[in-house]
Amino acid sequence: MSSMEDEVLAEVANQLYAKPLDDFVAARTTAAKEAAASDKELGAAVRALPKPSVAAWAVNMLAVHQPDVLAQLTELGGRMRAAQVSLDAASLRDLGRERRISLAAAVDTARSVAQEHGRAISDPMAGEVEETLRALTADEGAAAAVRSGRLLKTLQADGVNAVDLAGTVAVPSVLPPAAAAPASAPAASAGRKMRTTAAAPQQRKPDKPRLEAVRQTPRPASPPALDRARAALEEAQAAECGAARVAQELQDQADDIRTDIAELLRETVDLRARLRTAEEQLERSKKRLAATVAEAKQAVRAADKAERTAVLAQERVLRLGNTRD
Predict the structure, then answer these.
(1) Which distant-in-sequence residues (6+ apart) come within 8 Å of 276 by Cβ?
(2) Looking at CB atoms within 10 Å, which of 82, 240, 263, 324 has the fewest?
(3) Is the confidence at residue 2, as pLDDT, over 80?
(4) pTM score above 0.70
(5) Where a domain ends, among 217, 234, 257?
(6) pLDDT band at 268, cuts 50/70/90?
(7) How far apart are CA 47 and CA 252, in angstroms?
């Protein structure tokens, strides 16, 4: 699809992902039909938009209804990355405390917004929301994905590598610009002072933020141990992604089944109403039949009586005629 078509798809997606979660499947079907009426390719693209996980939907609700909360966390993340670049340990400790407080408040807000729009967020889901917001503060790409309001699944940051955004946001080609890290004067001056004394290997690249920089710097692990740890991390992340994918597929199937059940329930209610109407009509018809049968019997008896009367009258006429002759 062209960039213009991507923008149109993104606009449709913005409307879909801003809706209550239980309305998503029906709204997507309607939007796909409307889009396909003028552009079959766009209609297919709309139909292929995945339903978000519950936790990702809660984050989207935050992006739609409380964007200032995400803006504040994004700004905080920029200050943290600036402090990381300048190796300002004191600022990192203060910012770490500030982030813990801000994340707790943001999660509470997300739970309230989600509740207002039809879903209660459990404690495990709230944990996923917090991990996603933590990733927002750690990575500019994650911040852009979260603030788009089109998140499909929650994010995680390991504190070392850039956040993996593959398959995490709908229409990734159309994302808001990533927030730039502000370079405050105190952080910059502290950075210059520390860079004059710090060894070159201690420099860290901005695109690999550390979420846990507020902790004391650990002693370097030996290369074999570090390699094993990284391999274990990759294996655990792969297993988590696989499990999340299966869970999402099952959730989509469950939502489709719920939609089918709702339609069947509506059809059942309609059929029951029609059955009651038919039964009432049947009862009225039976009563009319019984009355008509009774009237018919009376009419038959009256006809028989009239016939006998006519026969007697005819016989009398014949007798009188014979007598006169």
Answers:
(1) none
(2) 324
(3) no
(4) no
(5) 217
(6) confident
(7) 13
Gap between the Cα atoms of 183 and 91, Å rounded? 13
Residue 81, number of CB atoms within 10 A of its CB: 27
| Residues 6+ positions from 172 with CB-CB distance below 8 Å | 145, 165
Side chain identity at residue 83, one-letter code: A
Q: How far apart are the C-alpha atoms of 267 and 135, rounded to whole Å?
A: 45
Residues 11, 65: one domain? no
Q: 17 with 170: CB under 8 angstroms?
A: yes
Q: What is the DSSP string of 103-139?
A: HHHHHHHHHHHHHHTT-PPPHHHHHHHHHHHHHHHH-
Residue carrying the six token digits 């990381």: 84
| Mean pLDDT, range 242-266, rounded to an integer | 63
Residue 45 · residue 9 · CB < 8 Å: yes
Q: Alpha carbon of 272 to those of 6, 209, 279: distances in Å? A: 46, 62, 10
Burial of 261 (0-12, 13-18, 19+ CB in 10 A): exposed
Q: Is residue 201 located within the same domain as residue 63?
A: yes
Long-range residue pairs from 162-169, CB within 8 A, at least 24 positions apart, any chain:
162/207, 162/208, 163/135, 163/138, 163/139, 164/237, 165/141, 169/145
User: What's the structural domain count of the chain?
Assistant: 2
Q: In this model, does residue 43 exceed pLDDT 80? A: yes
Cα–Cα dist 140/163, whole Å: 9
Domain that holds residue 212: 54-217
Residue for token digits 């788009």? 148
- Tokens 């079959």 found at: 40
In a domain, 83, yes or no: yes
pLDDT at 89: 85
Structure tokens at 267: 């059809």
Write out pLDDT tens, residues 145-189.
Answer: 999 999 999 999 877 788 889 999 998 888 866 543 343 333 333
Which structure tokens are listed for 170? 């709908």
Average pLDDT across the chain, whole number: 79
Q: How far apart are CA 157 and CA 147, in angstroms?
A: 16
Q: Are residues 139 and 13 in the same domain?
A: no
